[in-house]
Write a structure and sequence with these properties.
Elements lengths: L2 E2 L5 E2 L3 H12 L2 H4 L1 H38 L5 H9 L2 H30 L8 H18 L1 H30 L25 H16 L4 H4 L7 H30 L5 H4 L10 H8 L5 H33 L17 H11 L4 H5 L1 H10 L3 H22 L16 H15 L3 H6 L2 H7 L2 H16 L18
Antiparallel strand pairs: 1-2
Membrane topology: Multi-pass membrane protein
Subcellular location: Membrane
GO cellular component, one term: membrane
């Protein structure tokens, strides 16, 4: 029977839900499509270095979040942790920043469903599909957290199976078992032209940004902590499983694509979320004679987009609910229905999702604006998680606690959070290095608009409430769930 905390949300998410939510949240168009442009930009070696680097960063972030979430499992976790372990102003800024990120991402993803469906039904207006999928996602989230968990589980299964099939086909092609009667491809594409590293450090840094976007969503495991049946055991287990799956899926997939398709391929240069015909996955499947490859991969990408929108609806709703319980959002958003679902928070998030229909009125410019608006907010959240964990562990020791009290220990402290902080700053600064060099103010404004938004939120709360960084001895380490 589902348990219920004193805030009203129910603990119905199981370990398999948590694993697939975090895994599915990070396997999407970033892997199915954008991976091609990463290889064309930095070459096979550069792309692998970038994805391995971000993979390690994400692992340390997950273990940091896991240590805090098993000790104090709350919905909207990292905003709560930032407010309790660092500065209330940081918690306020992170919470609203993250809600804004996922609410806008919901609008972007729902808009993208119309673009994807255009592949099959080019004469039907995209807004019709967007309205349909937004309604479906609203219903899924309105029913119960278990419904959300089950939906994400099965949507993620589809993506995982696709990647596994792709890897099998890819390696058979590399070794010459599939893909025609010619000689095995082997690793010759790793040494053609300027490969394996193309463009040096600047190119690798630019791919770090692409890789970072691909991995975003893994932090959802922290959001779900407050609704997990057994967070002390399920979260560590989910983190361990997700790390190996992400590392294997992403690194092996990049390796296969780079081995089969040379980085000089014009198809890779043209990869974009709206052109499934030149997805690296499509090209590899077509190489082995799967005539319907584009249609199959388009269906998988549609699944990915719906999954991302579903996760976005859940994450933003729970973050807004959690902020209400902390009194940094209106009290009304803290209300839940009989199934433990915060309906007012869900409704506001859905209203933001309706921005998707502006793309039908003002065209693709509003779509790109929405994408840019949500741009760096995920990376800012990652940076906040690393800072919060560093302060949590320092305060834990400063107040006389023993590490033996922790159900789960983050790996390689303090190296892990420090590395995550350094890489987080690098990714944020490297969002658009060309605009920084040339001082292109319009490009800078679009690429970095999330940064001033965060600073404004932080400054507003700090000035109004006159907050300060909390001394380690006064950090609140009480083991409570949501208020």
């Amino acid at each position: 029977m589902a348990q219920e905390n004193n805030g009203g949300v129910k603990r119905e998410l199981k370990t398999r839900h948590l694993s697939m939510i975090a895994l599915g949240g990070s396997i999407g168009t970033g892997l199915f499509v954008a991976s091609g442009s990463a290889i064309s930009t930095a070459g096979p070696g550069g792309a692998l270095v970038a994805y391995i680097g971000i993979g390690l960063m994400v692992y340390f972030l997950m273990t940091s979040l896991g240590e805090m979430a098993t000790y104090i499992p709350v919905s909207g976790s990292f905003a709560t942790y930032a407010g309790r372990f660092v500065d209330p102003a940081l918690g306020f800024a992170m919470g609203w920043n993250y809600w804004f990120n996922w609410a806008i991402t919901l609008a972007v993803d729902v808009s993208t469903t119309g673009i994807v469906m255009h592949f099959w039904l080019p004469h039907v207006p995209g807004w019709i599909f967007s309205a349909f999928f937004l309604a479906v996602i609203f219903v899924i989230n309105a029913l119960s957290v278990r419904t959300f968990g089950e939906t994400e589980y099965w949507l993620s299964i589809i993506k995982v199976v696709t990647v596994i099939v792709f890897l099998i086909v890819g390696f058979l092609t590399i070794f010459g078992i599939m893909g025609g009667n010619g000689p095995a491809i082997g690793l010759k594409n790793f040494s053609i032209g300027k490969a394996p590293f193309v463009g040096g450090i600047p190119s690798i840094l630019s791919v770090f940004v692409v890789a970072g976007f691909s991995f975003q969503g893994t932090e959802l495991i922290g959001i779900t902590a407050g609704e997990s049946e057994t967070p002390e055991t399920s979260i560590p287990k989910a983190i361990k499983q997700v790390f190996w799956r992400i590392l294997l899926f992403y690194i092996l997939a990049i390796f296969v694509i780079a081995a089969i398709l040379p980085y000089t391929s014009k198809d890779l240069l043209g990869s974009s979320a709206s052109d499934v015909a030149i997805s690296p996955f499509t090209l590899v499947f077509q190489r082995v004679g799967l005539a319907s490859a584009a249609s199959v991969i388009n269906a998988v990408i549609l699944t990915s987009v719906i999954s991302a929108a579903n996760s976005g609806m859940y994450a933003s709703t729970r973050m807004l609910w959690a902020m209400s319980k902390q009194h940094i959002a209106p009290k009304a958003f803290g209300r839940v229905n009989s199934h433990g679902v915060p309906i007012p928070a869900l409704l506001l998030t859905t209203v933001v999702g309706l921005f998707t229909f502006m793309t039908g009125i003002w065209g693709p410019r509003i779509y790109m604006f929405l994408v840019s608006a949500s741009g760096l907010t995920g990376f800012i959240a990652w940076l906040g998680i690393a800072i919060s964990h560093y302060r949590f562990r320092k305060a834990f020791i400063a107040q006389g606690h023993s590490l033996g009290e922790l159900k789960y220990h983050a790996k390689l402290f303090p190296f892990g959070p420090i590395l995550a902080m350094v890489l987080g700053v690098l990714v944020i600064v490297g969002q658009d290095l060309n605009a920084v060099k040339t001082l292109d103010w319009q490009a800078l404004g679009i690429s970095y608009m999330s940064v001033p938004l965060f600073i404004i939120l932080y400054g507003y709360y700090k000035i109004r409430h006159k907050t300060h960084v909390i001394p380690l001895e006064k950090v609140d380490l009480s083991k409570i769930r949501d208020d």
